[in-house]
Amino acid sequence: MTENEQNEETEVAAEATEEQSQAGEAPAEPEPAGSPKERRQRARSKHAGEPRPQRSLEERLAERAAKRKANAAERTRWREKSREKRRAEGPRAGSPPAERRGTGSPRVRQGVVVSDKADKTIVVQIDLARKHRTYGKVVRTSTKLHAHDERNEAGTGDTVRVVESRPLSATKRWRLVEILDRAK
After folding, report:
1. Rounded distance, CA 58 to CA 8, Å?
2. C-beta separation of 145 from 109 below 8 A
3. Residue 168, pLDDT above cutoff 60
4. Which CATH class is domain 108-181?
5. Rounded distance, CA 168 to CA 184, Å?
6. Cα–Cα distance for residue pair 76/113, rounded to 1 Å
7. What is the DSSP letter of 172?
């Protein structure tokens, strides 16, 4: 580029600036070309702040450890606050009733007998409907348990209560406690 061309460009730029200042507008900077990554790099290189002093490896590691410790403490406070909030709310609506009656107590479930064909064994289906944590949609799930029925008194369709027990066979881990509602 010759010297004359450079002078002409400067004059044109100066005239454009004067026109904008007369119109009351701020001078618009031309949009730099390039990929977004290159634009970010250019923007970072224009950083006008004071540069940080050079630090040794030990200083950087100590600063990182302090920052991690502060973040961990913040997370701990947040978790504790969330726990307190949940405790204050009490049991959630739509959640299953307390499965255990105390520490060391066996779980108690209620369900419908779907099969009583095996001797001294019933298959109980436990249906559960609860709201999804994030989306709020009602999610329905069911589980089948094999339960021990010593006197073969439960029939298909009966609503029963079963309690957790020691392993009684390869699949049986529950015992029949009572029949709540007989099938018609």
Report:
1. 55
2. yes
3. yes
4. mainly beta
5. 30
6. 45
7. E
Cβ(145)–Cβ(170) below 8 Å: no
How far apart are the C-alpha atoms of 37 and 47, rounded to whole Å? 16
Extract the tokens encoding 63.
Answer: 């600063």
Contact 142, 159 (CB under 8 A): no
Contact between 141 and 83 under an 8 Å Cβ cutoff? The reply is no
Each domain of the chain, given as residue ranges in start order, spans: 59-90, 108-181
pLDDT, tens digit, for every residue of 78-112? Answer: 999 999 988 888 766 555 555 555 668 899 999 99
Q: HSE on the CB side for 153, CA within 13 Å?
A: 13
- Number of other residues whose CB lies within 10 A of the CB of residue 8: 11
pLDDT in tens, 148-157: 999 999 999 9
Structure tokens at 142: 């069911």
How many CB atoms are located within 10 Å of the residue 172 CB?
19
User: 10 Å Cβ neighbour count for 87?
Assistant: 8
